[in-house]
Hints:
Order of helices and strands: HEHEHEHHEHHH
Radius of gyration: 16 Å
CATH architecture: 3-Layer(aba) Sandwich
Largest sheet: 4 strands, parallel
Strand order of the largest sheet: 3-2-1-4
Number of helices: 8
Helix content: 40-55%
Amino acid sequence: xxxxxxxxxxxxxxxxxxxxxxxxxxxxxxIDSLWLFHFFKNVAAINVRPVFFDHPGVYPxxxxxxxxxxxxxxxxVVEFYQSEMIAVWSDEHKERCYSCKHHLFTxxxxxxxxxxxxxxxxxLGDAPExxxxxxxxxxxxxxxxxxxxxxxKNMIRAAARDAGLKAWNQPARACLVVxxxxxx
Length: 184
């Protein structure tokens, strides 16, 4: 179901954005976080900065998409080195996503000023039982506006396409570690 300016999820997201400003959006390079950043900046017109966690588990296409936004918007790049992340990823497989999200967002929280709200692109289709990192987000006070305002992946893709975002139809991906591409 596409969503537009008169629909409840759209209006709810504008209202929430205005309550949260200033905001940092963790831009992974995936369409969900890229759409959230675009929406906050261009639709809700709030004070928002993109933040990119540059670590070796990011797909090259997503790294490129995130870096374009971060560079053009005076965003924040938080660097994580391979040795550091391998130590985080070597946790028990079941806890790996939790440990990784906790590690990445703890660093962002330490860099953010006290009045900044940090958000991510989690949406309705991201089920906590399949996404153990969502617990880490909750523990750290990271907000997921798309999820809380009722946005699902199809709505995000349609809105991003209508807004002219290039990545609107890119494949959904976790990371290179979860997808088994790093041999960890």
